[in-house]
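Chapter review. Work through the record for LysR family transcriptional regulator before attempting the end-of-chapter questions.
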Amino acid sequence: MSRNFDYLGDVEVFLAVMEHGSFTSAAAALSTTASVLSRAIGRLEARLGQQLMRRTTRRIGLTDAGQRYLEQARGAFGLLREAEQEAQSQSAALSGRVRISAPTTFGHFRLPALLKPFLAQNPEVRLELNITNRNVDLVAEGFDMAIRLGNLPDSGLVARKLEDAPLRLVAAPDYLKRAGVPRNLEELAQHVCLPFVLPRTGKLGAWSFRIGGEDLEWQPRSVLEVSDDVLGTVSMAEQGIGICQTYDFIARERLASGRLVELLPELSGRTRPFSLVYAPHRHQSAAARALISALVSDVLSTSLLHKCTDDVEHGIKSPSRYSPFC
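Structure tokens for LysR family transcriptional regulator:
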């Protein structure tokens, strides 16, 4: 069997020269001489039938063909590195640091249960969790990944949908005893609502309902507005101050214990998406890739389990129609 890629050493030389900016610097890094590297580049250009570099006494430039070859060669060697690390990870314990950022809602109520089995299975991985409602700059701030809420703009990041989280309208029994139970949106407008100030716009966030199969964005008004941390609306509602809209994964335990009561369930059905994002051009460690895989698969399993439980409670036997993922 003939060797089809016995020239890869020359390709590595080409990449090294472009990375270091000169034959002299690349030769020092590779513990060889500039003339040896120049011959390797010459062999590569002869094989390809294309001039890759423009050499002057002061600098090295790339031809158009050289620029395209550089980008493709970098990608190919990146895939080889990933394949090598993947193979090594099968026989070696995962290790290293992984940095992840998450909003307060997901960071407090969803992420801990998802991270627990991953950390138990990978004790050598050091996880740094940043819980904030600010969208961090993944590359500039050195994060491997982040969890984002809402429909994501075309930012160039890779996005993996985690779940579409159902919304619930809730209040404490004490508040309802004092103020009464709203029977429709007109009556809801007369109650003490607990809206959240959106950090990006400074405006009150709308509440999402579904009426007769149509989606509605309803604007709550109140004398009490919560900013920075949306979980404050839940805390206020739990103390009987007013009504809030929050995620099912936050309300579920409070509803079961009776600390909160769901209102206007006939208007429910709306969800908001949570996604895991990471930079496509940043090389992910084996530990980071394993965490991405674990989060995506574990959220799916947990979401389906919760849906099965809800369906049984409501007399629905088959949960197959439910899919929280794209």
